[in-house]
Here is the input.
Amino acid sequence: MPQIDPNPAQHPLLTQNLSLSFGESTVLHDISLAIPKNCLTVLLGPNGSGKSTLLGALSRLNRPSGGIAYLNGKDIASQNTRDIARKLGILPQSPLLPANMTVYDLVSRGRFPHQGLFSHWTARDENAVITALEITGTLEFSNRAVDTLSGGQRQRCFIAMALAQETDIILFDEPTTYLDLRYQVDVMDLIAQLRTQHGRTIVAVLHDLNFALQYADYLVFLKNGRIHQTATSPQDCTAELITEIFETPVTKLIEPVSGLPVFLPLRKQGGL
Here is the structure.
């Protein structure tokens, strides 16, 4: 991966000296981070390290108490909400789902940023929705109610809604939460496909370290609300780094098919 240029115009998302507080509690401290274009960037760290808070700051859901977040080279705080939604989509950890809504209707909500006050549904809107359904493999059950689907199927529907926005940037907050192993792989394969085959810039908060290492192009490790370290390749991660970040001794192994590292925690002597 090329060296990151700190110029805001060179990156889809960038923060400079960003801090964020909730009341008297400072959650993020002096975050300067450039998100590379057309890459899958993963935010990692222990619980409470500020991963989801940082994702919210990148999307303007969370307002910084200091510093600046840039979207396409411009201060995101100065941009119109509808304009932001045409450039950046975000899928929260537990998105709200109205009862009995069909898959097609849910995905169609992704077109709201492109609808004016008196706009009518257009052929472009229809094409964007159908394309999103096809990419995510949800077209075959697009007439079903979303709440009748499995957890993995529902998550693909929400990803389709984000795709229908036709944004170049998509943010995901723990997209595999509550899913079993099969659907975790299914969802992460789809997210990786959005980057490799459809040119999206992806930022994701992931809880599972080893899962992240199998998919990430760029890794950002947070600890205590600060960027502890970044890695431009999973191979750059060492057992010493992971032990330091998560405060748990680990050993490093190599996954034989991908050649990528995995880390296993070491049992404490005498542990149950």
Observations:
- DSSP finds eight helices and twelve strands in the chain.
- The helical segments are 51-58, 81-87, 103-108, 123-136, 151-164, 181-196, 209-215, 239-246.
